[in-house]
Specification:
This protein has about 450 residues and is an alpha/beta fold. It has two domains: about 140 residues, Aspartate Aminotransferase, domain 1; about 280 residues, Aspartate Aminotransferase, domain 2 (3-Layer(aba) Sandwich), CATH 3.40.640. Helices cover about 40% and strands about 15% of the residues. The protein has a seven-stranded mixed beta sheet with strand order 4-10-9-8-7-5-6, with helices on both faces. A four-stranded mixed beta sheet has the order 1-2-3-13. Strands 11-12-15-14 form a four-stranded antiparallel beta sheet, with helices on one face. Helix 4 packs antiparallel against helix 13 and helix 6 packs across helix 12. The protein is globular, with a radius of gyration of 22 Å. It starts with 7 loop residues before the first helix and ends with a helix.
């Protein structure tokens, strides 16, 4: 009989395929096993404690080990551990959460629809958009525009929206009818002598040229994160959204605001939509919605979208879409309690109070010799690294910085050569300084080694 591996690390290597990981390299180096978490900290299997500088995956808003969320899950598990929302069925937590989200939306929304992840929410948004075009007798209006370096998920459809090469390579993506316009990253995309205002105008002009070249009658929707997350924390140039939105309205193109990272306080307002004065027709939500304690995501759609979808479902006799676990009662109960915590503790106000320190320390890193740009807003930011010795190996410097941060007790995330910071919203000013002290020490160590 074959002897099975004993340690958790060995069993992981033997049996698990990991996301965003070099599978062969993983076989050699093995995993970091995280055993527990409390507040802004997590602890690995050796007992070493780390600041979780990315809030898990941009998502644990209220921190780790929040007992109120554990208790909310336990209460609901005892009462109704599972039910669905198919075929005229419902349950209390999904009704309450739908009402909460529609009423707290920063722009008028008609209905909430539940899914299980940001990827599923954006994938479903695409289906709703196509369904609506057919309902309106416009079968040619199916093309969707997103942006280079945008991130919208990893299903076949949502990964096609995502504008990052590694999400397309060897997956035969993007699929047809998905178009990409330029990234609004001023430093890398500006022309010589071009002001930020002129750059924003050029971004808008390129979008309009793409629409006209393809035919406005064929463009159904535009997807955009208020602030780009996984593409490198790209904060839009001043005036960008004020120029883009009128173009969408001019050509009757739906606007989908991907709030998966920005939503629920991250940018200093409850939604990034508020921060930038957006008027989306659809909002996609996830991550901080439940602080990722349980899988939960949602779409909010306005009446312009819902009305046509409802009419088409009546014509067909059903809305033929849904997920077994969508609107799961336990996940919905946790999300409701999570939103209560965010509101009761005024975590959005807390972000506004602490953000100046966060951004001051972030931009101070921008003075380091290895850093070519620092950028951020609210409680999300990044530093982009460069060094002549590693210029021909993209991502190598980010990997070195990531290792140096981890060794010193800070978990960040290397997005190529960009180091991202997106801590739990509960982080205190002292903890902000602790996090950036570690980052400074890590950069110093990398610079010395080079």
């Amino acid at each position: 009989m074959t002897q099975l591996p004993n340690s958790l690390e060995a069993r992981d290597i033997a049996f698990q395929l990991h996301s965003y990981t070099d599978a062969r390299k993983h076989e050699e180096m093995g995993p970091m096993v995280i055993e527990k978490g409390e507040g802004i900290y997590v602890e690995d299997s050796s007992g070493k404690r780390y600041i979780e500088g990315l809030a898990g995956l941009w998502s644990v808003a209220v921190g780790f080990g929040e007992k109120r969320l554990v208790e909310a899950a336990a209460r609901q598990m005892e009462k109704l551990p599972y039910y669905h929302t198919f075929a005229h069925k419902t349950h209390g937590p999904s009704v309450e959460l739908a009402e909460k989200l529609v009423t707290m939306a920063p722009v008028p929304m008609s209905k909430a629809y539940f899914t299980n992840s940001g990827s599923e929410a954006n994938d479903t948004a695409i289906k709703l958009i196509w369904y609506r075009s057919n309902a309106m007798g416009k079968p040619e209006k199916k093309k969707i525009i997103s942006r280079v370096r945008g991130y919208h998920g990893v299903t076949i459809a949502s990964a096609s929206l995502t504008g990052l090469p590694n999400n397309h390579r060897s997956f035969d993506l993007p699929m047809s009818n998905i178009l990409h316009t330029m990234s609004p990253h001023y430093r890398t995309m500006r022309l010589e002598g071009e002001s930020e205002a002129d750059f924003a105008r050029r971004c808008a002009d390129e979008l309009e040229k793409l629409i006209l070249a393809e035919g406005p009658e064929t463009i159904a929707a535009f997807f955009g994160e208020p602030v780009m997350g996984a593409g490198g924390v790209i904060v839009p140039p001043e005036g960008y959204w004020d120029l883009v939105q009128p173009i969408l309205k001019k050509y009757d193109i739906l606007f989908v605001a991907d709030e998966v990272i920005c939503g629920f306080g991250r940018t200093g307002n409850m939604f990034g939509t508020e921060t930038y004065g957006l008027q989306p027709d659809i909002m996609t939500l996830s991550k901080a919605l439940s602080s990722s304690y349980l899988p939960m995501s949602a779409l909010l759609v306005n009446e312009k979208v819902y009305g046509a979808v409802a009419d088409e479902s009546h014509k067909i006799g059903t809305f033929g879409h849904g997920y077994t676990a969508a609107g799961h009662p336990v996940a919905a109960a946790v999300a409701l309690e999570n939103l209560k915590i965010i509101e009761e503790r005024d975590l959005v106000g807390h972000v506004r109070d602490i953000s100046p320190t966060f951004l001051k320390r972030l931009h101070a890193l921008g003075e380091h010799d290895l850093v070519i740009e620092s950028r951020g807003i609210g409680f999300i930011g990044a530093i982009e690294l460069a060094h002549s010795d590693l210029a021909k190996t993209p991502g190598a410097l980010g990997a070195k910085a990531n290792a140096a941060f981890t060794e010193r007790g800070l978990i960040s995330r290397a997005l190529g050569d960009t180091m991202a910071f997106c801590p739990p919203l509960i982080m205190t000013e002292a903890q902000v300084n602790e996090m950036f002290d570690i980052a400074e020490a890590g950069l110093a160590a990398v610079a010395k080694a080079l």
